[in-house]
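pipeline: protein-struct stage 2 | run 1193 | Maturase
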Amino acid sequence: MASKDTPLLMNKWKYYLVNLWECHFYVWSHLGRIYINQLSKHSLDFLGYFSSVRLNTSMLRSQMLENSFLINNAPKKLDTIVPIIPLIGSLAKAKFCTH
């Protein structure tokens, strides 16, 4: 357990805020990475919905023991994207949309 004045608790909150930003605001923060041509090449049909899958490389920086050393990692991240136009077409075919 950590008390409220320890740096461990602050680092934990920073980690949670960064995760929140990365997960929920991904499109806003990385808007320039979406390419329509790549979406149409790598899409697949699953349960009537079109979905695209791409692998992105994201840079992670790890810091251990307060400035002892820094590690840069570049893991592959799997992103699933549902393009809007095929999704609307699939919903219209299923008579989900009324207009």
